[in-house]
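Researcher: Sequence recovery benchmark, item below. Answer with residues only.
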């Protein structure tokens, strides 16, 4: 399975769409959002840069993790999944291999935004905060990887790309990764607390506040993990019958 994961990682990193959406776009958006003079001056600007650094790192991680579904859908259309069935790899190993591929490609997407925060915007954190932020966001992408895999196994390549993009954008906006939840109407702020993206962002924002993620954050993300895992399994079974 190691060789299979290496193959899939190389394929992902050669995809221009992945490079743009997973790396370039989040960094560009972060630098634009934090250097347009809307964050105030002094400590307000520092806090603004820190908040958006985590938000855009989470956004980049969403793009990298969910983008795995497009590759799955394309492989299904090309018959690659049928070829894998005649190899010694079990279906479980194939799915795990795809998930591991997403895990490998997500971490650089997160680190790219964190580096932009440190090198361009002068964000200063303790070493443990940098490490904890990267690791928590990395682990926190698991539910979104499953969502991307569910889309890929259950939909066509074209539909998967559109659906995953819509999910990523919608979850990011409603989850407060682009706009602080404090700026939302009260009803939308309440809805946001139950979305996976808001709780995903909280993994990093809690580190900025020097405390562990709250029990509510872990519980909500755990619930969405179960939902998206069920979706991925059902989609895989359906895709296996039609591929």
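Model:
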């Amino acid at each position: 399975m190691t060789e299979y994961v290496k193959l899939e990682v190389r394929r992902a990193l050669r995809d221009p769409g992945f490079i743009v959406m997973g790396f370039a776009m989040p960094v560009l958006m972060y630098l634009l959002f934090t250097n347009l003079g809307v964050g105030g001056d002094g400590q307000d600007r520092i806090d603004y840069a820190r908040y958006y650094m985590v938000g855009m790192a989470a956004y980049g991680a969403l793009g990298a993790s969910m983008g795995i579904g497009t590759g799955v859908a394309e492989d299904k259309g090309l018959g690659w999944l049928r070829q894998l069935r005649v190899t010694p790899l079990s279906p479980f190993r194939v799915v795990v291999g795809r998930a591991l591929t997403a895990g490998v490609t997500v971490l650089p997407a997160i680190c790219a935004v964190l580096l932009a925060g440190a090198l361009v915007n002068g964000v200063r954190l303790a070493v443990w905060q940098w490490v904890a932020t990267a690791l928590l966001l990395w682990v926190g992408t698991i539910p979104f990887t499953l969502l991307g895999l569910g889309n890929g196994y259950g939909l066509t390549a074209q539909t998967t790309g559109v659906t995953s993009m819509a999910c990523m954008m919608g979850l990011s906006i409603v989850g407060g990764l682009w706009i602080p939840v404090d700026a939302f109407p009260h009803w939308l702020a309440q809805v946001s607390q139950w979305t996976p993206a808001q709780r995903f962002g909280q993994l990093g924002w809690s580190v900025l506040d020097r405390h562990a993620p709250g029990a509510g954050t872990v519980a909500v993300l755990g619930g969405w993990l179960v939902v998206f895992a069920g979706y991925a399994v059902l989609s895989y079974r359906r895709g296996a019958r039609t591929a």
